[in-house]
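Thread: "does anyone have the structure for this chain?"

Original post by V.I.:
We have the sequence but no experimental structure in hand. Need at least a predicted one for the grant figures.
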Amino acid sequence: MPRLRQPTLADFILLLALMFVVFALAQALVEYLTLAGEAIRYPYPLEYGEGPILDQVVRLARGESVYPAALTLPPHRVTHDPPLFHLVQAPFIAAGPTFAHGRTVSLAGALAGVAFLTLIAHRLTGDWLASLIGGFLLLAFPHVVFWSLFNRADTLALALSLAALYAVLRWSQRRLGLALAAALFVLAIYTRLDFLLAGPATAALWLASQRRRREALWLLIGVAGASLAIFLALNLATAGGFFQHVITARLIGFSLFPVVGQFINLFVHAAFIIIGGILFLVLERTSEPTRSWHFALIYPICAALAGLAAGLPGSSVNSVYELVAAVCVLTAATIAWVGSNPWLRIAALAVVALQLTDLRDWTREDYWPVVVGKMQLRREVTQLAEMVQRAEGDVLADEFNGLLPLQGRRIYIQPAEFMQLHQAGLWSDAALVEAIERRTFPVIALYEPMGGAAQIVQRWTPRVRQAIYANYEQTGRLAEALIYTPRH
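Reply from O.Q.:
Generated one for you, tokens below.
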């Protein structure tokens, strides 16, 4: 009978390090699910972009076009995203407009992202422990746990893209597997156009690195061909409106500063695991090659290129979603690479534990307060919603424009988007100024948080602001929004 190996000091320290990592990941998951549940139950908009998306879903459910060709005629609304995320929600609108459907889809996308990241890492490494750590690490990054609380398309797109990458790793030897991967990539693209590059490019380059250039070519042909066909069909059906909304109105006002800011923030707060991943990519070439190396190198590079979308107007932490996912895969590959050497694995787990502490603090300090602060204003937002409901005529609002579709009203203008169009010379504010001077709007609600950025200046053109101040008077302040009514 073989003798059992006696536990060593290294085994004990390894178990202790693993317990720290598991506890930190479990804590991050519980905190995320708790806040996500509260967000789903919260009936009002949590950020500016949720309102236009709900308005688009309502219009789509009624059979209306959400990509009108003319941007100059009121109501002034822009639909930046392709329609898949809206179509997922549209069947449920019959029960009444709500943000809960989109937020639930976003939560499901985040959890699916964790699952597919784990499966991708395991397919590459064969190490379940490293793969589970890499997968659940996704929910420690504030980018995902913050943005996935909202009625936004990005998290569903991320889940579809990761599912496509797993299909490539798992079934690309078969034609049906390649077709499935191509279909999932196309679905991700038509959920959020920003997912056009990183996923398909990673899949094709990885296949090429495995000397499977034919499969890489067929995958690219499938994704490009289907995407182009759908684009042409949508553009034809909307008389050019789809191109106008998704391309022209989106690709204006690019700035490199937000890109640099997002990349620096990510590196500063995830420096330990990023540096560890770079060491793996360099040192692995001096040892026995691993199956994960090519993918772990290609995906971050492609995701970093896709992250340039951070420079487009309206982009936020969502622009580096795929880069965060790539860092998670790289971390799993690094942990798996240290293999059975207990001291190296202890060092890797210690680095992850330290990183999780930093990410948790970053999330709690910079991101949770934004959402919790909005929820704490619920009583005042309810009063604002009642004011909107009583108003006779169109209401102008920015941060709380989501109250309008909730009340069965139309959004008259999306000010941030049309501010960008105005600056690009693609829209004139003359008609809106004239309407304000006629005192057409019974209520105007302009968001201006105490100590925050000057949202009024960023979202409304100078002539519009001057017209409001000249023809309206401030009569109140609710939920950090200044309430204006016509002068008598």
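V.I.: this helps a lot. The longest helix spans residues 9-41.
O.Q.: and The chain has 23 helices and four strands.
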